[in-house]
Specification:
The chain is built from three helices and twelve strands, in the order ββββββαββββαββα. It is globular. Helices cover about 10% and strands about 50% of the residues. It has a single domain (about 1-160), classed as Hypothetical Protein Pfu-838710-001, CATH 2.40.320.
Length: about 160
């Protein structure tokens, strides 16, 4: 299961260049259910995602470069390209009543800076081990609006958007 929350960003961290960064390109073969192919740096995947907004089934299958480009040619809609920064979030905040995580507990913020035609869109995704943790999460101050339940901010919807 993939359990994640999505947020718009108020302000980029000043030290963004200090974090690992990957270039991602992805194309959608289907959107219901979601079947996408992705190139992340020099790694290639096909992903199946079930229905859902915050929590949904997800399966990844490794591809080689030739398979990725062959399938990408069959994709519908827009190809999405973005830079993804991996930012550790140590000691994340949770709502009162949620069990206090261990002292060394950390999450990873996946900060996506979209290329054209979706620039200047910037979003953060945070994945969780349970829906309870996702629901209790208190985002950092630099996060903006929670768009987890807004379909227009899901990549599969963006891929089909007429530009």
């Amino acid at each position: 299961m993939e359990i994640e929350r999505k947020y718009l960003i108020r302000k980029l961290p000043d030290n963004l260049k200090d974090y690992p960064c990957h270039h991602i390109e992805q194309a959608y073969l289907n959107v219901d259910p979601v079947v996408r192919v992705r190139k992340e740096d020099d790694h290639y995947y096909m992903t199946y995602k079930g229905r859902g907004m915050m929590a949904r089934e997800e399966h990844n299958l490794a591809l080689n470069e030739m398979s990725y480009y062959h399938l990408r040619e069959k994709a519908d809609g827009n190809i999405i390209s973005k830079k993804r920064y991996l930012i550790p979030l140590t000691n994340p905040g949770f709502k009162e009543g949620f069990p206090t995580p261990p002292e060394d507990y950390a999450l990873t913020i996946e900060l996506d800076v979209f290329d054209a035609p979706f620039a200047p869109l910037i979003m953060a995704e945070v994945e969780f081990g349970s829906t309870e943790a996702a629901d209790a999460f208190l985002p950092p101050d630099w996060f903006g609006e929670d768009v987890t339940y807004r379909k227009e901010y899901h990549n599969s919807y963006m891929a089909m958007k007429k530009l």
